[in-house]
């Protein structure tokens, strides 16, 4: 957290540039850094602002603005190091990329020219004269640079005595004189220290010297209107004024006045100070003496115009004084001056040039200066002839600012009015003057006039005499009404008029009266308000300046040294209703205003300015005096006071709270809404005795729509705690109308405070039906109402309610709830709603479930859920197996079989699981189920009764289950019974059985002992039988060998006289075989198969029958296809319980032997076949003889070979396995090259 604050905080500076703290601003934290900043951060009251450094090229928008995080007037290496250490980034801004600027910041002096500079690298050249740096100069400059860098830290340490640092800086300045360029930024820390030290010693000469050097250096790298330069100029100007360097100070002040005013506003104290110094009322020629330019001037009348004030004396002279204290004088009249008035840019005056009465109205143009510094006289009008019947001179005049109306008053009380273009060539002619008031010597001379234009084309003219105040309303050059006001009249200086507002202020001895021109038009109007300002004292002068009203009163001097009377000056803020300033002056004075500047002219000619303090200063003074109500009034009436107003209210509220005035304090806290965190106030008023005030505050927050959900909740709880039900419900209704908060929280509060009917009504109105039912059921306990409420809801919503509240309703009002459930079931069946949700309410209440199922089970949509309910009842042992079978199976359909089975397995309904799996023929699934529940007898039973093709797998699964079962499951008798059944089935080899059971951790030898002994006995018996069979087969083989020898070497007599096929006498042509069978040719062709054309049909049939009779154990030569035999062998091998026995049978028949008798016979016959064919090919010419020979040979081989003939191409090839699969191309069988007859397929 500290790191975040350190990185993102800003130094808060006051309007004088002095740091006074730090602040965080999320928005300003997003502004990027630049070593050549476009903006500076300044603080205007509580607002942080980004001020452009170059007003000619300000940033386009906030996103492109940048400012400097550090002091950018440092070498680039040091800047980057500081940014890297504190802000963790490498700077590559515009300033860092400006190589020329960075080089100048670290430049060295040229050894020849004065103003030239060169880079701080060896061998550099002067940028001005081109001089090459010498090695000696390089070393000198380098040492000076290193010394300055090393001393920088020491110069900035406050713990080092100032004098020590000053001495070090003076030595460095001497060292840098001929080495570091005057614009090298390494000089800045040294110059700053010398400037500050000189200021501390009040050494104005050196302070000015170092200040100017600092300013020149800053100007090289910062813009003219950069805030940093403006502040330095401001401080330097003060030093120059103190050192009497007025012209230089004035130049600096004039440079910074406008920029500082733009940044901080005219009301800022720093701007006022600058203006004060510029407007300092000192004679430039005699600066130590006060301004005495108006000494001995007897001011009888005055008026202001722009930035000037015109002061008239009774002897006819007029003084013009400007804001810059430039004064001019001219003689306006030769005898006397009665009145001055300004309108637009012109000055109007009434006076006498002659001894006799001959009043003149003169119009001056102050913008045009004539002879003797007098303004140009534009016109002169003789006023006495216009009132021929009167011998009194003109005493006052008034001109409207639009120069369209003028009024002139006389000494006898008469008033003339002219309406038209006052400055026209033919204007002010005698014929157009209107006499609106007749002579009244008793009233005295007219001491004041004021003209106001009001809506409706009417004109109001106020006439002030020493005794009364009158108002005349004119329309179409006719006086339509006249009023005499209650004011007692006033002298020439005791009234003021504001043309912009049409308000006339008249000061009499007792009261100060306020009249509005608009009210004077009304018949019943004209009665102004009055204030007791300066009551009981003679009024000397009344002056209005902005919102202030300055009043001079004549009072007896408390110290009667030089005069009997003194002047009491009081400045009132009428709107704010407070006295802004009050003081006593030893002599009678005059007040006048130049612009916004109020000046006091003493009797001795001294001129003083009454300067208004800035808003913050005034507020601080008032707050320190606990005058919070006055401070609030000032802030409200100030254009910049809005930012401070809430803060004042907060302080005022804290003050009142501390005094125990909680009611008024809460009223002040109400004014802080939007600024002050509400939780601050709420914590103060959470005490039960202050809840009334807390309600007032929270009501105000809601009225201003600054509330959140927490505020609403607190206010509701406060109302409820105070038992203000009426206010509570009214507020709830307002909240309901606004719909800006969570109604569930409101509902909860109403329920907590036991406003149950209102809570349920609110929930119903906002469709919070769950909350409404919660109130009805859990708080009001009105279950019948809840059932009716749910019955009126849509089917889908009713189902949701029942899912939540159904159980308690079943418990509290079972009959009504069951009726509701039945109705919802019927409605849901029609609408297709998911009515299955309601069945969850029956969990744990089997009786209710049974009752409902009896009603709803005929509904197809509910059948499955009724099954679940009934199964839950069975699981809870509420029903018998017979009942559950009857209830479930009669609703079983192919569509719901799977779901029913799943439910039955979940709830362990064994009868249903067995029925479904048995009926479906899913022996394996049933086996898994029995294994899951550990029912070993059922496992044995299902293995016995399963289909034959699954029996082997089933027994193996049963054995695996036993091997993995626990000791409790291993029932010895049951396992013995299982082994007996396995032995009977003969589908699992005993070795496999023993291998599986050997993995069990719980079986003992005694369990399988009997099974092993029986198997060994059977094996022994089988071995004896096989030995006997072997002997018999060897005997048969010997007989076959003898028969073969006889066929090969003995003559065979063929004496068959009948055809073996048709059993008729043989007739040529005939076919004879060595097997003693003979055929007619046509009979032979009829019975011979295509693939065995040289085989005896009768013998071939016998061979096939022999193969089938032997169960595939033997293969007759020439009759069984090799591929079919191989496929049959694989099938037998896959299904055989004892694979080794099957293989041994084939081996016993010699079908896989590559050596032995069978192979020898095959090789011998093949060789004989080849030799005989070659021998007879040269001697036998009859082709049938050769065929007979081949037939005889083929028949001879028919007992040992699988083919009746051996083609020539196969002689000499390796013998092939007759059980190999055919080749992919569909040709003859291809025997693999490996000698193992089982190969990879085994």
Write a structural description.
There is one protein chain. With 1242 residues, this protein is of the alpha+beta class. It is 45% helix and 17% strand. The chain contains 44 helices and 37 strands. The chain has a four-stranded antiparallel sheet with strand order 9-10-11-12, with no helix packed on it. Strands 13-14-15-16 form a four-stranded antiparallel sheet, with no helix packed on it. Helix 19 packs antiparallel against helix 20. It is elongated and about 200 Å long. Pfam families: PEP5_VPS11_N, TPR_PEP5_VPS11. It is a peripheral membrane protein. Keywords: Lysosome, Membrane, Metal-binding, Protein transport, Transport, Zinc, Zinc-finger. Belongs to the VPS11 family.
Write a concise keyword list for the protein shown above:
1242 residues, alpha+beta, four-stranded antiparallel sheet, 37 strands, 45% helix, elongated
Could you give a quick summary of the protein structure above?
The chain has 1242 residues and is of the alpha+beta class. It is built from 44 helices and 37 strands. Residues 281-288, 1111-1120 and 1154-1242 have low confidence and may be disordered.
């Amino acid at each position: 957290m500290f790191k975040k604050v350190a990185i993102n905080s800003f130094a808060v500076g006051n309007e004088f540039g002095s740091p006074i703290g730090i602040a965080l601003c999320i928005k300003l934290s997003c502004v990027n850094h630049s070593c050549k900043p476009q903006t500076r951060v300044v603080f205007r009251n509580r607002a942080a602002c980004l001020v452009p450094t170059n007003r000619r090229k300000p940033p386009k928008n906030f996103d492109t603005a940048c400012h400097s995080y550090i002091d950018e007037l440092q070498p680039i290496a040091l800047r980057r190091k500081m940014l890297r250490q504190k802000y963790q980034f490498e700077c590559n801004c515009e300033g860092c990329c400006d190589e020329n600027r960075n080089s100048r910041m670290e430049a060295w002096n040229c050894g020849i020219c004065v103003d030239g500079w060169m880079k701080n690298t060896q061998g550099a050249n002067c940028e001005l004269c081109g001089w090459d740096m010498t090695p000696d100069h390089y070393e000198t400059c380098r040492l000076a640079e290193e010394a300055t860098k090393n001393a920088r830290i020491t110069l900035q340490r406050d713990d080092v005595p100032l004098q020590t640092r000053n001495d070090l800086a003076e030595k460095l300045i001497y060292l840098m004189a001929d080495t570091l360029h005057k614009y090298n930024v390494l000089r800045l820390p040294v110059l700053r220290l010398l400037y500050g030290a000189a200021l501390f010693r009040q050494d104005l000469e050196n302070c000015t010297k170092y200040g100017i050097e600092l300013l020149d250096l800053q100007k090289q790298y910062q813009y003219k209107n950069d805030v940093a330069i403006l502040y330095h100029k401001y401080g330097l100007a003060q030093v120059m004024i103190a050192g009497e360097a007025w012209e230089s100070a004035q130049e600096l002040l004039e440079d910074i006045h406008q920029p500082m005013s733009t940044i901080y506003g005219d009301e800022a104290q720093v701007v006022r100070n600058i203006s004060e110094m510029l407007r300092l009322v000192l004679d430039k020629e005699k600066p130590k003496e006060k301004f005495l330019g108006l000494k001995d001037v007897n001011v009888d009348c005055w008026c202001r115009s722009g930035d000037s004030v015109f002061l008239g004396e009774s002897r006819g002279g007029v003084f013009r004084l400007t804001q810059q204290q430039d004064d001019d004088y001219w003689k306006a009249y030769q005898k006397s001056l009665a009145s001055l008035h300004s309108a637009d840019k012109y000055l109007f005056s009434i006076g006498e040039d002659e001894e006799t009465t001959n009043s003149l109205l003169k119009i001056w143009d102050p913008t045009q200066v004539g002879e003797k510094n007098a303004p140009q006289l534009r016109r002169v009008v003789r006023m006495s002839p216009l009132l021929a019947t009167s011998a009194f001179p003109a005493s006052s005049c008034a001109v409207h600012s639009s120069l369209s109306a003028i009024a002139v008053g006389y000494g006898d009380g008469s008033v003339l009015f002219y309406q038209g273009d006052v400055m026209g060539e033919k204007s002010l002619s005698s014929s157009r003057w209107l006499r609106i008031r007749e002579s009244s010597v008793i009233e005295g001379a007219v001491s004041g006039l004021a003209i106001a234009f009001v809506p409706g084309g009417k004109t109001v003219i106020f006439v002030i005499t020493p005794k009364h105040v009158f108002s005349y309303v004119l329309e179409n050059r006719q006086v339509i009404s006249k009023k005499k006001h209650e004011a007692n009249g006033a002298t020439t200086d005791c009234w003021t008029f504001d043309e912009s507002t049409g308000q006339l202020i008249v000061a009499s001895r007792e009261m100060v009266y306020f009249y509005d021109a608009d009210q004077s038009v009304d018949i019943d109007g004209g009665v102004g308000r009055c204030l007791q300002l300066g009551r009981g004292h003679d009024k000397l002068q009344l002056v209005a300046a902005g919102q202030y009203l300055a009043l001079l009163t004549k009072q007896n001097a408390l110290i009667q040294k030089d005069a009997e009377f003194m002047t009491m000056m009081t400045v009132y803020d009428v709107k704010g209703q407070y006295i802004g300033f009050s003081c006593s002056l030893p002599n009678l004075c005059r007040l006048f205003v130049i612009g916004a500047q109020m000046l006091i002219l003493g009797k001795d000619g001294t001129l003083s300015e009454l300067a208004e303090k800035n808003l913050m200063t005034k507020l601080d003074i008032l707050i320190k005096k606990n005058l919070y109500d006055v401070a609030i009034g000032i802030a409200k009436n100030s254009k910049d006071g809005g930012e401070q107003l809430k803060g004042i209210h907060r302080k005022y509220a804290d003050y009142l709270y501390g005094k125990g005035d909680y009611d008024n304090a809460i009223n002040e806290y109400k004014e802080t809404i939007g600024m002050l965190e509400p939780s601050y106030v709420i914590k103060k008023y959470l005490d039960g005795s202050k809840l009334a005030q807390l309600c007032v505050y929270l009501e105000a927050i809601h009225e201003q729509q600054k509330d959140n959900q927490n505020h609403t909740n607190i206010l509701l709880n406060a109302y409820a705690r105070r038992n203000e039900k009426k206010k509570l419900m009214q507020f709830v209704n307002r909240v309901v109308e606004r719909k800006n908060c969570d109604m569930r929280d409101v509902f909860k509060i109403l329920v907590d405070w036991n406003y149950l009917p209102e809570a349920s009504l609110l929930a119903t109105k906002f469709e919070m039906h769950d909350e409404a039912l919660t109130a009805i059921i859990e708080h009001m306990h009105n279950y019948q109402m809840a059932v009716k409420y749910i019955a009126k809801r849509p089917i889908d919503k009713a189902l949701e309610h029942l899912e939540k509240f159904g159980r308690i309703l079943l418990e509290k009002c079972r009959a009504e709830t069951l009726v509701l459930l039945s109705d919802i079931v019927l409605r849901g069946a029609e609408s297709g709603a998911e009515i299955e949700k309601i069945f969850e309410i029956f969990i744990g209440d089997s009786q209710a479930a049974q009752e409902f199922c009896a009603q709803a089970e005929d509904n197809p949509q509910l059948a499955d859920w009724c099954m679940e309910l009934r199964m839950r009842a069975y699981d809870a042992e509420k029903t018998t197996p017979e009942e559950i079978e009857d209830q479930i199976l009669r609703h079983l359909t192919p569509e719901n079989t799977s779901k029913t089975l799943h439910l039955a397995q979940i709830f362990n309904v064994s009868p249903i699981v067995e029925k479904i799996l048995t009926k479906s023929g899913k022996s394996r699934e049933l086996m898994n189920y029995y294994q899951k529940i550990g029912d070993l007898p059922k496992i044995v039973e299902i293995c016995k009764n399963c289909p034959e093709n699954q029996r082997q797998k089933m027994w193996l699964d049963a054995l695996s289950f036993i091997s993995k079962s626990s000791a409790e499951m291993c029932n010895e008798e049951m396992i013995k019974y299982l082994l007996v059944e396995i032995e009977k089935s003969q589908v699992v080899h005993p070795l496999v059985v023993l291998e599986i059971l050997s993995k069990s951790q719980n079986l003992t030898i005694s369990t399988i002992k009997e099974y092993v002994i029986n198997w060994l006995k059977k094996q022994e018996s089988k071995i004896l039988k096989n030995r006997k069979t072997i002997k018999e087969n060897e005997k048969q083989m010997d007989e076959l060998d003898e028969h073969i020898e006889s066929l090969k070497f003995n003559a065979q007599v063929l004496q068959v006289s009948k055809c073996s096929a048709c059993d008729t006498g043989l007739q040529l042509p005939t076919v004879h075989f060595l097997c003693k069978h003979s055929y007619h040719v046509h009979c032979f062709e009829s019975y011979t198969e295509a693939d065995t054309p040289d085989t005896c049909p009768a013998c071939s049939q016998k061979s096939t029958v022999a193969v089938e009779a032997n169960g595939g154990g033997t293969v007759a030569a020439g009759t069984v296809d090799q591929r079919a035999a191989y496929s049959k062998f694989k099938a037998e091998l896959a299904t055989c319980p004892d694979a080794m026995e099957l293989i041994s049978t084939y081996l016993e028949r010699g079908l896989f032997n590559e050596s032995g008798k069978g192979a020898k016979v095959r090789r011998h016959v093949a060789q004989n076949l080849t030799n005989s064919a070659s021998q007879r090919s040269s001697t036998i010419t009859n082709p049938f003889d050769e065929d007979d020979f081949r037939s005889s040979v083929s028949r001879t081989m028919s007992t040992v070979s699988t083919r009746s003939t051996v083609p020539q191409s196969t002689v000499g090839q390796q013998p092939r396995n007759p059980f190999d699969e055919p080749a992919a191309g569909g040709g003859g069988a291809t025997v693999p090259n490996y000698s193992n007859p089982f190969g990879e397929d085994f």
